[in-house]
Amino acid sequence: MKISSLTVGPFQENSYLVMDDASHDAVLIDPGDEPDRILAEVARAGATVRAIWLTHGHIDHIGAIAGVRRIWNVPILMHPLDDPLYKAGAQHAAIYGLPFEVPPPFDLPLADGDALDVGALHFDVWHVPGHAPGHVAFIGHGVVFSGDCLFAGSIGRTDLPLSDPAALQTSLARLCTLEAETVVYAGHGPTTTITAEVDSNPFLNGVARIVRR
Q1: Pairing outcome for strands 25-29 and 2-8
Q2: Residue 213 predicted with pLDDT over 60
Q3: Are the CB atoms for 54 and 69 separated by under 8 Å?
Q4: 210 confidence band (pLDDT: 50, 70, 90)
Q5: What are the backbone angles phi and psi of residue 126, rounded to the nearest 5°?
Q6: Cα gap 181→81, rounded to integer Å
């Protein structure tokens, strides 16, 4: 597996290209902005994009979809509970005074327990709401793409429309049950591991005690 990370846009969001080394089949996870940069990375890697996977529907995670889809007309996968946020992208961008190209409707719904394949790679879908109602994580091959649920040293915001602080705590507790050395590829900031966050993330103090009991 080869993972390329690009930090894009004014929100400094992490967009990921995940490619199976053998087949060069790939997916884009959360193409958030700067589609030209993302497409250039796809070309550099020699990847064949098969789908766009979204952890959630906030504007900083969906802003490059329209540009990507002009070149790679592939399905967009998202949990349907995030469709209101996805459809409100232009409205939210206007609040920040940011340009925004409205993406096409998502194609395929994600649900907790789904299994996704790209080439020989296999990922499980976990529904981890809180930051957003349809937030999901993609887990496989010793990594988790956590979106805006868990960050290095921090956690997702819950003061946004449709956020739910109690749900986020439940989701974080679930993520903390992953293998300790699972590498966390977050929606913002550097990579980390589950054990590093359980040991040092100040927002996981209560969660860590529950998991380790």
Answers
A1: unpaired
A2: no
A3: no
A4: low
A5: -115, 130
A6: 30
The domain of 30 spans 2-212
- The H-or-E segment that residue 78 falls in is strand 76-78
Chain mean position to CA 146: 6
Task: List, for residues 138-165, the tens digit of each pLDDT value.
Answer: 999 999 999 999 999 999 999 999 999 9
Whole-number Cα distances in Å, 48 to 15, 26, 150, 180:
16, 6, 29, 32
Read off the tokens for 98: 């940011």
- Sorted by sequence, the CB contacts under 8 Å of residue 77 that are 6+ apart come out as 51, 52, 53, 54, 106, 107, 108, 109, 110, 116
* Cα gap 50→28, rounded to integer Å: 8
Residues 103 and 3: their CA atoms lie apart, in Å, by 24
Average pLDDT over all residues of the chain? 96
Number of domains in the chain: 1
C-alpha distance from residue 204 to each of 19, 96, 175, 197, 208 (Å): 31, 30, 11, 7, 6
Average the pLDDT over 131-139 and give the result.
98
Supply the CATH number for residue 158's domain. 3.60.15.10
